[in-house]
Amino acid sequence: MADQSAKQGGGPIIKIAFFVVLALVLLSGAIFAPEHPGLAIHPMDQFEIKPLFGGDHLGTFTPTNQTLWMVLAIVGIVLLLVVGSRGRAIVPTRGQSIAELAYGFVYKMVEDVAGKDAVKYFPGIMTLFMFIVFANFLGLIPTSFTATSHIAVTAVLALIVFVFVTVLGFVKNGVGFLGLFWVSAAPLPLRPVLAIIEIISYFVRPVSHSIRLAGNMMAGHAVIKVFAGFAAALGLFGFLPILAIAAFYALEVLVAFIQAYVFSILTCVYLKDALHPSH
Amino acid sequence: MELVAAAALGKFIGAGLAAIGSGAAAIGVGHVAGNFLAGALRNPSAAAAQTATLFIGIAFAEALGIFSFLVALLLMFAV
Q1: Residues of A with CB below 8 A from B55's CB?
Q2: A215: distance to nearest CA of chain B, Å?
Q3: Site feature Reversibly protonated during proton transport: at which residues (chain B) (predicted)?
Q4: Which residue of B has its CA nearest to A205?
Q5: By residue range, what is the domain housing residue B24?
Q6: Is A132:A264 a contact under the CB 8 Å cutoff?
Q7: Residue A41 sits at the chain B interface (C-beta within 8 Å)
């Protein structure tokens, strides 16, 4: 009952607070409107890699904002999967139920897409999925850095998958793995042509695999920044682009999850190809 | 000097043309998703099992749009 009355009492207050915030946004838009609108915000500046402890030198082992956010992603994963589910309660806490949800989701995906005998490689795919999903979501925090928006990061992830899957295919099937390129369902004269196409598409896999993730992350964040530039340029009507940013942000939350899902589901597809190369 | 300016112009025009490929990929992705929805509404009980296939199809359709994006990136920053 007390909860309900608080809710009823809180309604008008929330509304008033909303209008106060809106008025402040309008006012700040009017006061801080830049002299040269349009030049205030550069959409690609957020992807700049900077050394953490000052200086301009970027060596191989220089700690940068890139490494910082990758480490934060790993810390987040450890907090969720190790610390969060330490209780092992029958009625799970919030953290434990999220961890169990993620585990079950990835496990089911591996089982459904790659087959029962691919469950052996589930830990690797779980690691990939959790890392990407955490890097994506941490990158959505304003003023943070998206580790997965750089092709260097995603290319390494995709290359790990590509090399692992290729080696696994040859270890499991020997020369039979080349049957992946020999489409036995097609008529014989067509097969050499198809083999060339299949080989090209096989070696192009890591390219599309990595650029899909990095491109989606980069484009989404750049769009938000472009709209932020509109908000700065419009002055009094700056709240309109801000509303658009809210909508784009919601879409980006969805994209952040879907791209992690797509990355790991494609890993499963490639794994299935390596385990059962018959075409 | 004229040649350098023409090369820069061609670079940007080429990058813009490559961006058309992203739109073509958007048509492909929409086609996949629309047909999935059409099938799912005919037989909703079979739809849930096919969401993974949907995403794989979308990812493959998108891959070809990514190559045009790659061409645009190469033209802008590498050529």
Answers
A1: 258, 261-262, 265
A2: 8
A3: 62
A4: B63
A5: 2-78
A6: yes
A7: no
Over residues A70-79, the pLDDT tens digits come to: 999 999 999 9
Ranges of residues in chain B whose predicted pLDDT is under 50: none
pLDDT > 70? residue A160: yes
Q: How confident is the model at residue A232 (pLDDT cuts 50, 70, 90)?
A: confident
Using CB atoms within 10 A of its CB, is residue A139 exposed (0-12), middle (13-18) or buried (19+)?
A: buried
Chain A to chain B Cβ contacts (< 8 Å) = 35
Residues 6+ apart with CB under 8 A from A186: A194
Which residue of chain A comes nearest to B64, CA vs CA? A208
Quote ipTM for the complex.
0.77
Domain extents in chain A: 13-37+63-275
Q: Give the Cα separation of A72 and A147 in Å (integer).
A: 10
**Nearest C-alpha in A relative to B53:** A113
Instruction: Match 């007390």 to its residue by tokens.
Output: A2
Interchain proximity A212–B63, CB inside 8 Å: yes
pTM here is 0.81
CATH number of the domain at B48, please.
1.20.20.10
